[in-house]
Design brief:
By secondary structure, this protein is an alpha+beta fold. The chain contains 14 helices and 16 strands.
């Protein structure tokens, strides 16, 4: 039984290890796939931004070359406020037609700035000018301080977008900057043409509220799936997508804390990707959300469940086979050590067990007593009633003695009508009392008993020999009695 339990424990340990490995692989594959999908979105956005940047550079170069923009900005730097207003009106008149053509191609803003980052002319809001942008617009500040092109995503005082800011020079002198930006609606429109997905764009609420003019906050709207995000109305998704995201509000709220990209699968077999967008200062400020049908998670989960089912079935089969093999082995071992007539230990098995007990006697000087019991007149009984009746007497006698001894005592059929019984940790006095109880309580037959007590240098042969001698004396003295070994006082 111990071997079977050990085998069960071993196979369950192997099973648990395989299950853990399969689940770990499943999560690793799932994580790797999500990372690939997030990277795919990032690569697509970066590619779009690069293309927009090249288009912006071409468009601004054309605008500057075909209008007196540089001369106007250069003159505005030292001009009075009244003169600046005149120059602003003139620049707007010169640029407006080309600006409108640019808007049709996805541009959201064209914005001129003076060298100190003062807004000179917003083509999208010409009535708003004169505010310093350096504190809230890193792109404008860097482009003016370093007199070099700067690009990046950034929230503005009115709109957000991917911004491309170019320095303006007049005879080699830095006189200001001009900015072209694309709306996220243009980015989403381009993404939607190359990927089968639904998109939304959301900004960090704190960024919007700290940057946008108060009367321009209507460009944004709260979202039902997070109190920390605002949605850009120009990229407002369909209501079904908003409802889907709202259903996962708790998961989203937990994931946006770190400001990193993340993704999750829905029970509608869709993959929701939140791609983190950072501004030019490498600070997370927004998310591009992409939701697309995706069977990968279900396929991976189905594969995991299939493997788990196969492993479980294999475990059951192996466990059953192991149980049967070990059960048969235990039966064979038990049969090899069991007397087939009485069901108790046989001589061989007893000899192995008592040898170990004698070793314990030698090591620890523990007492051990031995009893040999012989059924009286058994041959005559056999001759009178037959061997079948004799066999039944032996079985009944063995059963009665078995019921009168301790679980730790060693009891065996020694041969013929003789039984042998070892009492570990019992002196010969205690063994004599136990032997007498056995002799008196055995029914149907009488038994003669010989006792011996183990000595430190005893072998099994010497111990059994002394008990056998005592048994011989018991029979010689009239049978149905208990006799100790000859070296001790004989008691009946």
């Amino acid at each position: 039984m111990k071997a079977r339990l050990a085998a069960i424990g071993l196979w369950f340990a192997v099973y648990a290890g395989v299950v853990i490995l399969l689940i770990t692989d499943y999560h690793s594959d799932r994580t790797r796939y999500i990372e690939q999908q997030l990277s795919h979105v990032a690569d697509q956005i970066e590619s779009i931004v690069v293309d927009f940047g090249a288009f912006a550079e071409f468009s601004i170069a054309s605008l500057v070359e075909t209008t007196p923009a540089v001369e106007v900005i250069s003159a505005a730097g030292d001009a009075s406020e009244a003169e600046r207003n005149r120059l602003r009106t003139e620049l707007y008149r010169q640029v407006v037609d080309q600006y409108r053509r640019m808007v049709r191609f996805g541009f959201r803003q064209v914005h001129f700035h003076l060298p100190d980052t003062t807004s000179f002319l917003r083509m999208h809001r010409p009535e708003r000018y004169g505010d310093r942008l350096g504190a809230v617009r890193s792109t404008v500040r860097r482009a003016n301080e370093e007199s070099r092109p700067v690009r990046g995503f950034e929230e503005g005082r009115i709109f957000n977008g991917f911004r491309f800011v170019f320095p303006l020079r007049d005879d080699g002198r830095h006189v200001g900057t001009v900015e072209a930006s694309f709306s996220m609606a243009a980015v989403v429109e381009t993404l939607a043409r190359i990927e089968r997905a639904r998109f939304a764009f959301v900004m960090e609420r704190s960024v919007v509220e700290s940057t946008v003019f108060e009367d321009e906050l209507d460009n944004y709207a709260p979202v039902g799936f997070s109190d920390e995000l605002y949605i850009d109305r120009s990229v407002y998704p369909d209501p079904e997508l908003v409802d889907l995201l709202t259903m996962h509000a708790a998961e989203i709220a937990e994931s946006i804390v770190d400001g990193e990209s993340f993704a999750f699968f829905t029970d509608r077999r869709e993959l929701v990707r939140f791609h983190s967008i950072q501004n030019i200062d490498d600070r997370h400020v927004a998310y591009m959300i992409a939701v697309a049908p995706d069977e990968t998670h279900n396929d991976q989960l189905s594969q995991l469940l299939l493997f788990l089912a196969i492993v479980t079935i294999a475990l059951v089969i192996v466990q059953v086979l192991t149980w049967l093999v070990l059960r048969d082995r235990e039966v064979l071992i038990r049969m090899a050590g069991t007397d087939q007539l009485t069901g108790i230990m046989n001589r061989h098995s007893f000899s192995e067990e008592i040898t170990r007990e004698l070793e314990r006697v030698r090591r620890h000087e523990a007492p051990l007593s031995l009893m040999i019991a012989d059924v009286d007149h058994f041959k005559a009984f056999n001759d009178m009633y037959g061997h079948n009746a004799g066999d039944q007497v032996l079985r009944d006698t063995a059963g009665e003695i078995q019921g009168m001894i301790r679980s730790g005592d060693l009891f065996a059929r020694w041969g013929g009508e003789e039984f042998i019984l070892a009492f570990p940790d019992v002196s010969i006095e205690g063994a004599w009392r136990a032997a007498e109880k056995i002799r008196q309580d055995v029914t149907h037959v009488s038994v003669s008993i010989g006792l011996s007590e183990a000595r430190a240098d005893d072998s099994l042969e010497r111990l059994v020999g002394r008990a056998d001698e005592a048994l011989y004396r018991a029979k010689a003295e009239g049978r149905n009695r208990t006799v100790r070994e000859s070296t001790r006082e004989q008691e009946e």
